Amino acid sequence: MAARIAVIGAGAFGEMHLRAFSQMQRDGRAELVGVADLDEALLARRAEQYGVKAFTSYQQMIEETRPDGISIATPDHLHREIALQCLSAGIHVLVEKPLDVSTEGCQEMIAAAESGGLLLQVDFHKRYDPYHRELHDMAASGCFGEILYGYAYMEDRIEVPRDWLRKWAAQTTPAWFLGVHLFDLIRWIAGSDAQSVSATGVKKKLVSLGIDTYDAIQAKVMLRSGASFSTDVSWVLPEGHEGVVNQGIRVTGTDGMMEVDTQDRGARCCLRKPTDGRPQVGSGMQTPNLGFFRESRDKLGRPRYSGYGIESIQDFAENVSHLIAGGSLNDLRNTYASGRDGLEASRIAVAVHRSMEAGGALVDVSRTL
Ligand SMILES: NC(=O)c1ccc[n+]([C@@H]2O[C@H](COP(=O)([O-])OP(=O)(O)OC[C@H]3O[C@@H](n4cnc5c(N)ncnc54)[C@H](O)[C@@H]3O)[C@@H](O)[C@H]2O)c1
């Protein structure tokens, strides 16, 4: 039985959700029943491109289309209320990361999902990157021995906060927008929740552009297992950088180590803009991350979307299909990033902000509830 899915928020990343589900619809694996956004012009473009019914009110969309599952790709600080309304309507929910920018919000969503017996999934797509899966699986099979320490970084080019998120960049930070990806990844690979955090942040470049948020945040995350990870997140890389995201991770244990450059995966290019409407590659020398997202054409010339950015969203529709066919949430346990995983990543982010406000002091993550 194919799940009927709707999307709320059709902006830059909401389009990935539309690509993911429209692909599944073509393959007969899901039905894309509606998209909601407040921006009428954007909504009209997306509705036409993805052949989906458009709504300016998500409440109306829920009433009219009665979807089995809804994915939410609104700005970080707007997830909570929308998710709670969807859950109270008895609908399974996928929320873009971060689940919420408060631990209370995450807990409210988890409670609502649990009381309704509903799926609450978080789009932590880094778990679907085959290199990260390998790190996770090697760690789970003991190939590192005991994990001792690691380092992870994620840096966006400056156009992300300055242009793409210009309406709400000042309402978030690199720890919420990027850091939660790493906090979830570290917990998942090391198989341990966080114990404490110390962090520092700097505000210079974006403030000079009139956007009051951090440029960069460095956090050390100590896990209950005794391992510790250093993380760097920032979103002020110069426009000339070869990728819109620069990222990598390394993990060292008592008996093994692994490091992955998840930005430069071996392909380098310097190309003219595509003329067939496909997303444009950047100018100058580029190292595209084709593992994250790739658009190609099938034999009939229709778009085909692939990559772990697409698969992690599609996993939600697969899970909903499983549930409406009579499967249980228990069958799916530990196969996806759950509401609890979203909460644990948000707890680390809350601790990071508290530590920065206290000049880098050590903050106990258990006190963030
Ligand atoms: N997984 C990832 O790699 C990734 C990457 C980028 C963004 N994101 C996340 O995706 C979410 C959206 O980010 P974005 O970059 O697409 O932002 P965006 O600003 O481009 O899009 C957000 C959209 O939500 C719409 N919206 C706001 N309130 C709404 C409401 N009440 N009803 C319907 N629509 C509403 C806005 O009109 C806008 O079009 C954020 O949580 C962000 O952190 C995830």
Explain this structure to me?
By secondary structure, the protein is of the alpha/beta class. It has two domains: 3-125 and 304-337, NAD(P)-binding Rossmann-like Domain (Rossmann fold), CATH 3.40.50.720; 127-289 and 347-368, Dihydrodipicolinate Reductase, domain 2 (2-Layer Sandwich), CATH 3.30.360.10. Helices cover 36% and strands 24% of the residues. It has twelve helices and 15 strands. The protein has helices at 14-26, 40-50, 58-65, 79-88, 103-116, 130-140, 159-164, 174-190, 205-208, 308-324, 329-332, 339-357, and strands at 3-8, 30-36, 54-55, 69-72, 92-96, 120-123, 147-157, 194-202, 216-223, 228-237, 245-253, 257-260, 294-297, 303-306, 363-364. Strands 12-11-7-10-9-8-15 form a seven-stranded mixed sheet. It has a six-stranded parallel sheet with strand order 3-2-1-4-5-6, sandwiched between helices. It has a two-stranded antiparallel ribbon with strand order 13-14. A hairpin with a 4-residue loop joins strand 9 and strand 10 (228-237). Helix 1 crosses helix 10, helix 5 (103-116) runs antiparallel to helix 12 (339-357) and helix 6 packs across helix 8. The two termini are 39 Å apart. The model has no long low-confidence stretch (mean pLDDT 96). The site of nicotinamide-adenine-dinucleotide (NAD) has 26 residues, from loops.
Spell out the helices and strands N to C.
EHEHEHEHEHEHEHHEHEEEEEEHHHE
Number of domains: 2
Kindly provide the radius of gyration, computed on alpha-carbon positions and rounded to a whole number of angstroms. 20 Å
In total, the number of strands is 15
Outline, from the CA principal axes?
A: globular
Question: Ranges with pLDDT <50 over ≥5 residues?
Answer: none
User: Cα distance, first to last residue?
Assistant: 39 Å
**Could you tell me the strand content as a percent range?**
15-25%
**What is the CATH topology classification name of the largest domain?**
Dihydrodipicolinate Reductase, domain 2
The distinct ligands, each listed once, are: nicotinamide-adenine-dinucleotide
The major beta sheet can be summarized as:
7 strands, mixed
Instruction: Supply the helix-strand structural class.
Output: alpha/beta
